[in-house]
Amino acid sequence: MALEELETEWVQVDDQLQFRWHRPPLETVQRQAEDPATVRIFLNGCFDLMHVGHFNALRQAKRLFYQLGFQKVVMVAGIHSDAAICQQKGPPMMSDEERIAVLAATKWVDELVTQLPYTKMSVKMADRLRVRYICHGDDMPICKGGEGMYSEAVAQKRFQVLKRTEGISTTQIIERIIRQQGWSKAEEVLSSALCTTQRLAQFAAPDGREAKQLSDSNRVVYVPGIFDLVHPGHVAVLSEAARQGDFLLVGLYSDETVRQHRGVAPILSLLERALAVLSLRWVDDVILGAPWSISPELLTSMNISAVVLGRAPGDPSTQDEERYRGARERGLLSEFESSFAISSAALKERLVSRSAELVQRNSKLLEKELNYISQKEYVPEGDARATAFGAVGGVAAPAVLPAEPPALLAHSASTEPEMLTQEEIGAAMLQAPTALIAAHLTLRDAVISAETALREVPLSGDTVAA
């Protein structure tokens, strides 16, 4: 989805709630709303310094409704305006344009609502957008005046709670930068988001299309980098690189490699950066801990046909650096200058320039977050069997589950076992979690070793040469 491909409509729900809706033609929206096998859902946020917690909320919401049996889930993502965020929390780190660019590049987003006020997300708004459910994490926001943002949706059973991703938030990212500058000694809760092989597989899976295989691709494009604090510059270079081939492979440097060559570690861990990059709609796969220098072996092993570098306007070119010599000598190297004058370093400089304000503001937000963490209860992630949530805004809220769509009922009633072809089994194996594949290979190696040892043990009566 590109914003320029969508129609834009100014919507006024009431005096407090007005916004821009970026959508396909209304006929398409109406067909989706009337289709019992399709569900339209809404999720809003500030999406400042967009990170794996934001991405995971969008992914998790779509996955949950697919688990319920819907054949199509349409995500309408709402993003609050700079003015609204300033009034509620203080100025965001990234501008409207910058935050919208990253959100629009997210593969789980189908439509956008921009210029959204920080006010109650009403059922009337949901009806206007033709969405059946409003979604949010289990850290329920309160608007100025003390009203719960989703109280009405909860009361009307039009709300779905999501598991908040542990270990990461915009507040915690800012706290990491403050710590890196030596400005804070506050207690650390979780140093990074918890990443399992299942979560990596979930983020790597494409949304709405079949997974591409590198071995089936005609032209693999490779983009190496740190990709710390995803921003519109990253989005622009990855979008451009994807146009140059049919498989986009991103090489992510390890935390230690970055520390060794840049003198300081990234703000986000390697796995947090990987999950963020995998959330962008053009990326097909990533190399975790990519080599700093592009060697002929890397180019050959991954069948790379093009290497694309990105830089912000005015930044010096890096094409002549020794680490790119292997790609340069083969004529594979090109450089793309983003139209966004932003980089991860520039983002960090913005924070540093507002250090006094941020330290004071973030200490209050971090205290609130620590309080939330200390009181939170277990919430299943994307589990259609357990989606109940507690009282919100004084309303005791029951579990919110859509009626089972006909497709799910038909599937449940079927007694015929589903037969898979060899191709489907092979594709499933390729998408299996890394841990399972590793366990299989370990077991295979153990069996081979045991068989070899047995063959070498002499039977009774055999003679052994001295």
UniProtKB/TrEMBL annotation:
Keywords: Lipid biosynthesis, Lipid metabolism, Nucleotidyltransferase, Phospholipid biosynthesis, Phospholipid metabolism, Transferase. Pfam families: CTP_transf_like. Belongs to the cytidylyltransferase family. The keyword Chaperone does not apply. It comes from the Eukaryota. NCBIfam families: cyt_tran_rel. SUPFAM superfamilies: Nucleotidylyl transferase. It is an enzyme of class 2 (transferase). Pathway: Lipid metabolism; Phospholipid metabolism; phosphatidylethanolamine biosynthesis; phosphatidylethanolamine from ethanolamine: step 2/3. Residues 43-176, 222-313 form the Cytidyltransferase-like domain. This is ethanolamine-phosphate cytidylyltransferase. Its EC number is 2.7.7.14.
